[in-house]
Specification:
2 domains, Creatine Amidinohydrolase, 389 residues, 33% helix, five-stranded antiparallel sheet, Creatine Amidinohydrolase, Chain A, domain 1, alpha+beta, 10 helices, elongated
């Protein structure tokens, strides 16, 4: 199966080349599945060599025949002499996903005299603006999220545990919604299951991840998400829909008994904050500006000290998403990248109440024509998320 045309992949390569030229880099060597897929449409083991003033060649170790079926780019069997001829000048690899051993392999194997440069930021910038083809795949992933959140309402019953909900929704996603099962999170020690499900005060547990919600997890080896406890008043699902390599991210808070006036009011305020945030995101603004605006709004509320964490906080409220869950742009302090039409990202305000647990919402949006459109549905009406048996 070929997902992308050569014209689509060539546009991506040319955009990447423009960023490489700005860094005065002559050549990029890409080996991670994340980057091979983005530029070739295949993840067969090998290396993609991109010359800023020349051609790009995908050298494949395993499996060459499959790579040829999946990708329209120039593909050659792995050949040390051919690779050596292409890696020249100021060469680079992305340090955020390249191991030291892999870097040293290329440097020693191909007798490169100079040290390799870092092209990870150039890659990140290349992936920020999505094509129509990419947006369609993200929208397809978003449909998975919408279906999963509706399905979660049907499977709840008194006595069910958080891990049972997680198992049910993940199985349904694969069996009925064609979820691909795996997805990419860029960076070292970044892992997560497709659905993070937490409940009650267990949802407040901090952990090592860069996600707002930690959770106790089933063991110290996992240390995140569901812990096997029974659902009492509410549960939260943070889900990654993934289809044909592209992702969508959304969070919903489910109430299994009618929430009191205080919780209902807080839920409304959180959704008001989400609405104000997405109205503020227009072409030309930066993640830093949006973040500071949100904090100024949060300061008005009684729950300001519990925003984006209780025992420990994360310092972002939104992140880009595409082939990787954690892309640019990021809504966070110091993020000066300007928003553009064609960007796709998730916005995820969450409140961590000590006597209740997490109340969180999140949607994935496409910035198009100067406005944001959600691909993961709507969460504004609390009545839609109350499950009373």
């Amino acid at each position: 199966m070929r997902l992308f045309s050569i014209e689509e992949l060539d546009r991506r390569v040319e955009r990447f080349k423009s960023f490489l030229k700005g860094l005065e880099i002559d050549c990029a060597v890409l080996t991670s599945n994340l980057d091979l897929f983005y530029f070739t449409g295949s993840v067969q083991k090998g290396a993609l060599i991109i010359q800023t003033e020349g051609e790009s060649v995908y050298f494949v170790r395993k499996n060459f025949d499959r790579a040829c079926k999946e990708s329209p780019v120039i593909i050659e069997p792995w050949n040390n002499d051919s690779i050596k001829k292409m890696i020249k000048g100021r060469w680079s690899m992305p340090v955020d996903v390249t191991t030291v051993s892999e870097y040293l392999f290329f440097k020693k194997k191909f007798s490169i005299d100079t040290d390799g440069k870092d092209c990870s930021n150039a890659l990140s910038l290349t992936k920020t603006v999505k094509s129509e083809e990419e947006i369609k795949l993200i929208e397809r992933a978003g449909c998975i999220n919408i279906s999963i959140m509706e399905y979660a309402k049907k499977i709840y019953h008194p006595g069910i545990t958080d891990i049972e909900i997680q198992a049910e929704i993940e199985s349904y996603a694969k069996k009925k919604l064609s979820h691909q099962g795996l997805f990419w999170i860029r960076g070292s020690n970044m892992e997560g299951s497709m659905g993070l499900v937490v409940t009650g005060k267990d949802s407040l547990a901090p952990t090592y991840t860069d996600f707002p919600i930690g959770g106790v997890g089933l063991s110290p080896a996992v240390a995140q998400g569901a812990s096997g406890v029974r659902v009492e008043k509410n549960f939260v699902i943070d889900f990654i829909g993934s289809s044909f390599g592209y992702c969508a991210d959304s969070t919903r808070t489910f109430f299994v008994e009618k929430p009191d006036k205080k919780i209902t009011e807080i839920y409304g305020q959180l959704n008001d904050l989400l609405e104000k945030t997405i109205e503020k995101v227009v072409p030309g603004v930066t993640g830093d500006e949006i973040y500071n605006f949100v904090l100024s709004e949060v300061d008005k509320y009684s729950w300001k000290d519990y925003f984006m964490g209780y025992h420990q906080k994360v310092k972002f409220i939104g992140h880009g998403i595409g082939t990787e869950v954690n892309q640019l742009p990021v809504i966070a302090p110091g993020q000066n990248l300007h928003f553009e039409n064609g960007m796709t990202f998730a916005v995820e305000p969450k409140i961590f109440l000590p006597d209740f647990g997490v109340i969180g919402v999140e949607n994935t949006y496409v910035l198009n024509g100067g406005t944001l459109n959600s691909v993961t549905g709507d969460c504004s009406n609390i009545e839609d998320w109350i499950i009373v048996q």
